[in-house]
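Deliverable D2.4 — example input (structure tokens):
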């Protein structure tokens, strides 16, 4: 048992050393998950922690022991945190890798999908106990806000080519390799190991390795903006149309910036576009490839739109009453 634990600790050290610098903080979360009445449930088993990689590795045995007694799944933030308490997209200042989560697949099937999609071999591969995680280390850190936003905008197209999880927020949490997957352990499901099976820290990729998906994202955005420009131009003319197009584009660009609450930000953008007089379909053409609209789709948009219409209508009525 001691040899096995030491070996797992060494693998964890190699993995974390590939993703984090010694001085950087790693966010850890401890969550129990189970199924009740056909629905996924979860609870926090222990408060979140922020620790340097050496401290995480040193406490590995204690983390395993705690998880065993509490059925806690242990997750870590893929991107480094700058300060204790940082946990939102807006607090992330560095992206060092691309990542993916593929549910209900074997590692052989994951490799086959990556191969068919023309995806480079991952720098690290983890068998999560319910699927496979892949990590592609980048040749250089992405630290500029516009560069990070562009990279995140590419991820949905990257995932779509091999069936990865659509969640691409940069504060993403993944399972810690070397721990156990206690999903639904409350109902008797046996824990399954989360195992690091590949870790090649020298396998690092330039952004050009993802150029196909960057191009897809850029084309989708261009098409959306083009459709919106054409529909606005049919209702306005000349300088008025150009001014409106510029204003719409400026508002829509806010969807590409990091934020601590994407749903709240998305709602605010929809409200502003409504106040400009855009129709529902014009707004959909403007936002459909951005933020949560790109991943959650039309149903999320329709819900957000309904709430925004109610607020904008209420504000309009209050303004009329105050001026009467």
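Example output (designed residues):
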């Amino acid at each position: 048992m001691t040899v096995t634990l030491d070996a797992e600790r060494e693998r964890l050290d190699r993995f974390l050393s590939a993703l984090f610098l010694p001085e950087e903080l790693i966010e850890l979360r401890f969550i129990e998950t189970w199924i009740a009445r056909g629905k996924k449930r979860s609870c926090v088993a222990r408060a979140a922690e922020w620790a340097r990689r050496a401290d995480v590795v040193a406490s590995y045995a204690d983390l395993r022991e705690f998880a065993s007694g509490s059925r806690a799944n242990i997750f870590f933030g893929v991107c480094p945190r700058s300060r204790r308490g940082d946990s939102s997209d807006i607090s992330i200042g560095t992206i060092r890798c691309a990542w993916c989560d593929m549910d209900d697949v074997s590692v052989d099937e994951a490799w086959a999908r990556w191969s068919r999609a023309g995806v480079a071999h991952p720098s690290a591969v983890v068998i999560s106990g319910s699927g496979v995680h892949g990590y592609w280390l980048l040749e250089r850190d992405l630290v500029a806000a516009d560069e990070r936003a562009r990279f995140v905008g590419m991820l949905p197209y990257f995932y779509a080519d091999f069936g990865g999880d659509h969640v691409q927020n940069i504060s993403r949490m993944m399972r810690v390799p070397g721990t156990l997957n206690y999903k639904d352990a409350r109902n008797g499901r046996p824990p399954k190991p989360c195992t690091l099976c590949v870790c090649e820290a020298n396998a690092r990729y330039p952004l050009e390795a993802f150029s196909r998906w960057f191009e897809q994202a850029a084309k989708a955005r261009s098409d959306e903006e083009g459709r919106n420009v054409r529909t606005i131009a049919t209702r306005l003319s000349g300088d008025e149309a150009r001014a409106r197009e510029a204003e719409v584009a400026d508002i829509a660009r806010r969807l590409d910036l990091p934020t601590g609450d994407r749903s709240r930000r998305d709602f605010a953008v929809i409200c502003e576009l409504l106040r400009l007089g855009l129709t529902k379909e014009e707004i959909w053409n403007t936002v459909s490839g951005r933020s949560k609209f790109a991943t959650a789709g039309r149903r999320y948009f329709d819900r957000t739109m309904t709430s925004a219409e109610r607020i904008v209508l209420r504000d309009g009525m209050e303004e009329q009453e105050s001026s009467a």
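The chain has ten helices and eleven strands.
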